[in-house]
Protein 1
Amino acid sequence: MGVLNGKAIKARLEEADPAKKLVITPLFSQEEQLREGASSIDLRLGCRFASTRRANVTHIGNEQLQPAQLEEFYVPLGSELLVHPGQFVLATTLEWIRLPRDLAATVVGRSRLGRRGLIVATATGVHPTYSGVLTLEMTNLAEVPLELAPGQAVCQLVLEKVIGDDPTAATAPSAFLGSLRPALGEGASDRIAGFLSRVAQPGAGKAPGGGGATG
Amino acid sequence: MSAEDLDPESLFWLQAARERGSAIRREIARLQARKFAFRLPTEVLAEIAARAESHLGSLEALPDAPEFFSDQVPHDERLDSLATVVYELVQLHKLLYLLSRVHSSRLPFEIVRPFEGLAAQLLGVDSASLMLRPGSEYGFSINSWGGESGRSLLPGAKALANSFCVFCPSAEVSNFGLFAILGHELGHPVFQRRVVSVLAASALGQAVVEVAPEGTDPEVQKKATDVLGRWAEEMFCDLCGVRLFGPAFVAAYRATLPIIWQAEGTPGYPSSCIRLEGISAGLKRWWEQPDLAPVLAAFPPLPPSQLTCPVHEDPALKIAAEALAPDGEFLERLLSITEAEIPSPSSCPGFAEHVISAGERIELLIPPDPYLLAAEHEYQSHELVAFAFLSAGIGRQRANSTWSEQFGWSEQRCSRAVSELAMKGLEASDLRRRFGLES
C-alpha cells in the first residue's frame, strides 16, 4: 500500500470512471481542504450526534447495543456542542465519503483538537467501497469542557492504495454502509467467537462447521 | 380594597390566572433549556415568552393597582379582563405544544433549508422559515404561523412572517420520498396570498352557473360556489405538487392515498377521484415529454384508472363536482393559473439527463448532486429540491434489486439508504451553492 499525496487525491476526486472515483461531498474548496504538499484531506464535523441513553442502559455487554438505546441529537451549523470531560459521543463527518475498490483510508484526528484533549476516531480504518458519512468516536480527555462547532475541521482522511485490487469483487456489505447518522453497526454474527465461548464447556470441541479441527 | 378583599368570584379568576401563568412560565423555561435545531422555533419561543410575560406582568401588577379592585371597575368588567388573560395564556400553551416535539432527531433536518428556499421562491419573498414537527395524524399539513390565529396570539411578532410549521406523520419522519407532499402543502399559502384574488368569487359563481341545472335554488348555487372555492384550493395545491415534483409527488400521494382516501367529497375536500383526475391532467401536461419518459418510468403509475367518481347526493356538491369535470373549463383554468404561479423544473434544459444520472449515482451509493445542474444553468431552489426527489425515485428503483442482491438488504433497508443519500445530496448542494454565492 502507498499513501496518496495531494495531487493523487485530487486526480481521484476528478476521476470520471465511477469505479475509480473518490467521492467526498460536500467539498467546498479543493485548495483549502487539500493543501499542497499534504497527504490527506480535511473533513468537517457534521450536525448529527449520538450518545448512550444513561437512564435505561445498565451496561454495555458483548451483545449488540440497540439503536434505540442511543440518544441522537442534531446541532445545526452555527451552533455549538459542549463535550464534557470524560464524555463519549458519537459524531459524524459533514462529508459523505465513497471509496473506490482500490483505495482504503485511515481517519486521523486533528492534532489541534488532540492537544486540547479531544480524541477523535478510535476505529480508524475505512475499507474500500465504503460509502456513507464517517462515524467518529469522540472523547474529551481534558479537565475542562470543549466546545465543538459543526462545520469545523475535525479530522483528516489519509488515503492508501490497496494492492491486489480485484475489479470484479462485489462491494463488501458493511453495517455502516449508506448511512447519514452516527452508526452503531448492525453486528454480523461472529461464528468463531461463538465457538470459542463454548469451547471450555463440557461436550464442546467441534470446530465451526462441525468438521472438527484439522490442524 | 386589595386582592384579599375581592369577592369570591373575582378572587377565583385571579388565582386561576396566576396559577395558569406560573405553569406556562415553567413550560417556557423548560423549552428554553432545549436546543432547537433551527432558528424558527427559537424565535417563536422568544415571541411566546415575551407575550406571556406581558400577560403575567399585568397580573403581578394587580396588587399595586387599587383602582382595579375598587368599585370604579364594574364586577363583570373585572371578571372579563381576568378571563381574557386566562384565555390568552391557554392559547399560548397551544403554541408551546407545537414546539414541544420539533427537536426530534429523526426529522430530516437536511431538507429544511432547501425547502425554506423553495417556499421563499414560491411566495416571492426574500426569506421564509420552516419548522418540521411529527404529528398525530397520518398525513401532512401546514400551519401558517403568520396566519390569522398566529397574528392574533402574537401580534407584531416578526419571526412569524413567512414562517410555517409542517406536520408530518410521526412514523414516517425519516421517509424522504413522502416529503414531496410538501409541494401540495406549500401550495396553500400561495393560493391564499395570490390565487384567491385571481380566482374571484365571480369566476367561481360563473363556473357554478354554467353547470347548474336550470331552476337551481339560489341557496344551493351559493353553497356550491363556496364548496367549489374550497375544492379549488385543494386542487390547486395538488397541481402545485405535480408542477414542482411531477412523478415524485404522485408517488408520495399514492403512498398516503389509502389513509386519506375519500370516496365522496365533503364541503371541504373534493373526492379522491376528482383529485386524481386533476393530478393526472397536470402530469400529462407538464411531465409527459419524450426526454422525461425514463424519469416517469421509474415511478409507480397513478392508482387504478377503473375508479369511477361517485355521484354526490348533495346537490351543491354535485354541482361543484360537475364544475371540476376532467375536460371542463374550470380545471383548465386551474391548470393555467398553476402554470403562471408555479415554476416547473421539467422545462430546465438538461434536467432529465442530470436526474437520470443522479439516479445512477444513488445506485453506486453516491449522493445525487443537484449542484451539478446549478453549475450549468441558472440555479433555482425548486429545481434543486425536485432534482433530489426525482433522482431518489430513480435511484430507489435501480437500487432495490442491486442492493438486495449485493448486500442482502431488505426493501426497507434500501429505502432508508436512498432517503439518507438524497438528504445528504440536497444538503451538500445547498451548502455548496451558498458557499459559491459567498465566495
Protein 2
Amino acid sequence: MKLLNYTSLRYLLFAALLLLFSIPVFYVVLNKIFTKSIDKDLYLQAKQIPAQIHSIKSERDLVLWKALDKDLEIILADSVSFHSKPYTGKVVRGTREETFRILQKKLRILDKDYVVQIESSVLEKDELIKTILVIQLGLLLILLCGAVAINYFINKKVWKPFYKSLSRLQHFNVEGRFDENLSDTKIDEFKQLNQSVTQLTTSVRKAFLSQKEFVENASHELQTPLARLKFKLELLSQESSGSQKQHTLIGEMYKAMEQLQSLNKNLLLLSRIENGQFDFSEQVNVKAIVREVVDDLAFIASSKSQEVIPGFAVDRCVIQTNKVLFKVLLKNLLLNAIQYSANNTVIRVEVDENTLIVSNPGTPMTLPASRLFERFSKSDTQKGNGLGLAIVKAIASLYQYRLGYKYNAGHHEFEVQWGEKNKMIV
Amino acid sequence: MKILIIEDEPDLAESIQQYLQQEHYLCEVATNVKEGREKIEYFDYDCIVLDIMLPGGSGLTLLEELKRDRKQDGVIIVSAKDTVDDKIESLKLGADDYLSKPFHLAELSARIESIIRRRQVQGSNEIHFGDIIADISGKAVYVNEKEVTLTKTEFDLLLFFLMNQRRVISKNAIAEHLSGAAAIYLDNFDIIYSHVKNLKKKLGKAGNAIKTIYGTGYKLSE
C-alpha cells in the first residue's frame, strides 16, 4: 500500500464514521428541539382557552365554537383517555391520516366535563428536519471530501522529496552514472534522509570503484611480468641441452602460464568493458560475425570432433554494436558450449531478426542457473577460468541485450536478445 | 635482415631479440620514442616491432613519421591495449600487421618472416628447408620438386614450422596459431599430434625433419 493511500484511507474512514454517527444524533437533537417548540405553542394556545370559555353560554355557542376553531377538538371527557402531557398521535382528517402533536386539557363547559384537544401538525416539522439534514449532510460531505483532497495533495507535496530519494535508491546502480544533485527540501527529516542516502551511495560507489580499479591495476601490472615469464620459458625451451625431464617441466610450466595469462587477459577485458572503455559502436553484420567466429573456433571444435552449425532465419541482420565485443560475446558462448558438450556432438547457432541462440546438447548442469553468469562460477570439469560467461553478461548489460538461459529437451540454450534500439534502420 | 624492436620493457625487448637472433636476424633495441626515432632516421630496417605505449609518446606517431618520410620498413605493432581502435588505427596508418600482447615468440617470428617475405620485391615467395619448398602465395608444397597435397591446416602448420626453423615451438603456440584462441580451451593436444602426424606422413622422408621435443612441442631441424 502506498503511503499516500494509507493516510488518505484513514481520513476517509474517519469521515465515514463521523457521518454515520452524526446523522442520527443530529436527527434526534433537531427532533427534540422542534417538538419542544411545538409543545410551547400548544401550551400557549391552551392558556387562551379559559378566556374563550367564558363566552360560551349555550349549547349552540359550543357547537359554533367547535365548528369555527379547526385546531381544537372538544370531546366528552368519558369518551377518551386523558394525557396530561403533549403527545404525538395520528388523527384522521378527511381521507388522510396525519401525525399531530396533541395537548389535552380538561374543561368544564355548561356543567359537563370535556376534554379539549389542541392539535398541531408535525408534517412541516418533519419536512424541515429532512431539509436541514440533507443540507447538513451535503455540507459535511463536501467538507470531508475537501479535507481528504487537501490532505492528499499536501501529503503528496510533503512526501515528494521522500519519493525522489526512494526512486534514486531504486535506480541506484553502482556501475551506472548517479545523479548526485539532491532535491532541495525544507523538512529536516528529509534532509537527513537525503544526506544518509548520499553518504551510503557514495561509500558503496567508492568501494566498488576501488575494487574495480584494483582488479584493473593488478591485472595490468601483471601483464608485463607474465609476458616476461612466457618469453623466458619460450627461450628456455630452445636450449637443446635440456633433458627430457626438463622439457616436460617446461611444458607443464607453459601450460600453467597460459592459464594465468588467459585469466589475466579476461579480468582486464572485464574491467575494461565495465569501465566503458569500449563505447565505440558501429554497424555490425551479425551473420558475417557468426560465420567468422564459427570459422575461428572450427579448430577447437574439431579437436572434440564437434561441429558448430550456424542457422539464419533472416537474410540480413545488422545491429549497432561494438564489433570486437560482439565477437567476444559469441566466441565465449561458443567456447562454453564446446567445453560442456561431449565429443561428436553438434552445436547450433541460430540467428533471427533480434535474437541469437547458442544451443548444445548436454546433461543438466550442477550449477544453479542464477549463478551461471557470475565470475568464477564453473563446474569442476571445465577447463576455462570461469570468466567467459561473466564477460558475456558484462557485454550484454553494456548494450542492454536480454540474456537468457534455459535447459530444453536435453539442450542448453543461451539466448541473446537485442532491442529495437540496437537494430539498424536499413 | 635487420629488425628494430621498440619496446619500453628492456627485458621483454631482450627476450624478443634473443629469440629472433637465433635465426638470421640482426636485432636492435630502442626503449623509447626518441631513441626509436633516431634509429629509424639513420638506418633502414626490414621490419620494426613497435609497441604502442612508450615513454615519451605513442608508437603510432613513429609509424606516422615513417610513412610520411616514405620509409619502406615493414612494421608490426605489438600492443597490450587490445582495443579495436588501436588495431584499426595501426592498420590504417600503414602497419603491416598487429599482434596483441601476450603473444608467443614463435608467433611474432612467423609474422615478421611473412612481412619481410611480402615486402621482398624480387625473388619468389618461397621458403626452403632441405628438400621441402613451400610456395606461400601459391599455397603449394613441393618435396623433391614433387607437389604434395596438404589440407589448409597442414599447410599453415608447415609454414609455421618453416618460419621458426631450428627452434622449439610449443604445442601451445601451435594451437594458438592454428585456432586463433587460447590453447587452454583444448581438452588435450591430441589434435596437434594428429595433424603433425599426418603432415609428416605426407612429407614422407622429408617429414622426419619435424622432431618431437618430448613434453614441450616440436622442432624443424636437420
